[in-house]
Write a structure and sequence with these properties.
The chain contains ten helices and seven strands. The protein has helices at about 5-20, 95-110, 120-135, 140-160, 180-185, 190-200, 215-230, 235-255, 265-275, 285-300; strands at about 25, 30-35, 40-45, 50-60, 60-70, 75-85, 85-90. It is elongated.
């Protein structure tokens, strides 16, 4: 159906106004009222990190338009008034620091026992808003990554609770959605955030239950070693080396159970050689260095790391 000339004129006239609309984010739970009065009827409570369009301001209140997520059914658009406190826009001085600070606080809250409900989702939204509203901020790359990381952890926990998570072949289970991690890699290539995002993507290539077979740890050790070759400056190199070394160490016993005892010696050597590289990895922490040394000790002293480990 063709638009009338009057409708086209109306749309063209409205576009500049729509583009110029002030937008903002709340960094505190904000009650929306039907009128600019705290005694007025309450419509909904907007969560931290929720974005909205600013329509007008008056006497300590802001008239806003926002999209509200529904537990059941489609999201709905709603307009109303909120107190003019806690609303951050791109013009707010140090707005990136304020939003980032609230995101960190929400993430810490999510890690506490009996912490605030949906605090992780709040942090995820807030981190992303730093990048969206302040793309030139020194915090933009880290914020986009941390938002993607929270989303990844939530989705990973959901996927791991399903029966398909135990499938030996990763192709037999639904992968963790990777769009946001790939977005980090695209927006901030050659940075530590891109390298860390790439490390997360390996999760979708790992087996579920190894079923005591060697092909899974063999494949996974290769994945981690290839990651180190591709991203030698990544902060995740130490972890990747440990993960590879651990799999070689586990193969020492797995090969024996498969009647391939002649391969155990080679796996033992690769486990030790790979673990020894951890100490020289970039940004290596004491934790990974110590875990690497422990692994070397266990392997060199023929202490089993797979199967019956109690003597």
């Amino acid at each position: 159906m063709k638009l009338s000339r009057i409708m086209l004129v109306f749309i063209c006239a409205a576009l500049p106004l729509m583009a110029a609309t002030e937008r903002g984010i709340v960094v505190r739970a904000a009650v929306m009222y039907v009128a600019p009065d705290s005694g007025a009827e309450k419509l909904v409570t907007l969560e931290r990190g929720r974005e909205m369009a600013v329509l007008e301001r008056t006497r300590g209140f802001v008239h806003v338009f926002a999209t509200v997520e529904q537990t059941f059914g489609e999201d709905r658009d709603i307009s109303g008034w909120i107190a003019d406190r806690g609303l951050i826009t791109s013009a707010t001085p140090k707005g990136d620091l304020i939003i980032y600070g609230e995101a960190v606080d929400s993430e810490n809250e999510a890690s506490r026992d009996h912490g605030r409900k949906n605090a992780a989702q709040d942090a995820m939204r807030l981190y992303r808003r730093v990048w969206e509203y302040f793309p030139a901020s020194p915090l933009a790359g880290e914020s986009l990554y941390r938002s993607a990381d929270i989303r990844w952890q939530l989705d990973k926990a959901d996927k791991s609770s399903r029966p398909s998570a135990k499938s030996m072949d990763p192709k037999d289970r639904m992968p963790i959605p990777d769009e946001q991690m790939k977005e980090v890699m695209k927006k901030f290539p050659g940075t530590k955030w891109a390298y860390l995002a790439a490390f997360h993507l390996l999760d979708n290539k790992l087996c579920g239950d190894w079923q005591a077979q060697s092909k899974c740890p063999e494949k996974e050790a290769e994945l981690y070693e290839n990651y180190v070759k591709q991203y030698p400056q990544s902060p995740a190199v130490a972890e990747a080396l440990y993960d590879a070394a651990q799999r070689y160490a586990l193969l020492v016993e797995i090969y024996k159970t498969e009647g391939q005892a002649q391969k155990s010696g080679g796996a033992q050597q690769r486990a030790v050689a790979t673990a020894q590289r951890i100490a020289s990895a970039p940004s290596v922490s004491a934790d990974w260095t110590a875990r690497g040394e422990r692994l070397i000790y266990m392997v060199q002293n023929n202490i089993p790391l797979y199967g019956n480990t109690v003597e």
